[in-house]
Amino acid sequence: MEKEKEEATFASGFANEEEAARAALVSKFASECRVSGGWGKRLARAVKSGLEEAWDLLDENRALINELDHNRDSETGDDLALNIALLGELNENMHRAADLYAGLSAALAAAAARKTKARKAKEAGSESARPE
């Protein structure tokens, strides 16, 4: 019950459910970074900023799509011509968001590989230090 109250209080500070869910996801990741033996504050900040930037692009795309729909429905020549530029911007934003997600994926994979390598080296060192 207490956890539900905390989540409701946390979510009340945001404009909508989606924004609250995003903030909760970032907060949970940052918390996991601290708890799991230090994935590192720098990685947590990079993931947080990368996710926020990608989400901003996706929000911008949502607005662009709404404008495209409106322009298409109006069927005026100027609005339809404007859609060409809007489609180009939408396409560019999608590529940028995909690049951000790819970069985040690579950063997380590299961090996981470093952590695994360090753990294995530590285990190997502790095994060789054991008396036989």
TrEMBL record:
GO annotation, biological process: entrainment of circadian clock; positive regulation of circadian rhythm; rhythmic process
UniProt-annotated location(s): Nucleus
Gene Ontology, cellular component aspect: nucleus
Keyword Nucleus carried by entry: yes
Keyword Nucleus among UniProt keywords: yes
Keywords: Biological rhythms, Nucleus
Domain Protein EARLY FLOWERING positions: 44-116
Family: Belongs to the EARLY FLOWERING 4 family.
Protein name as annotated: Protein ELF4-LIKE 3-like isoform X3
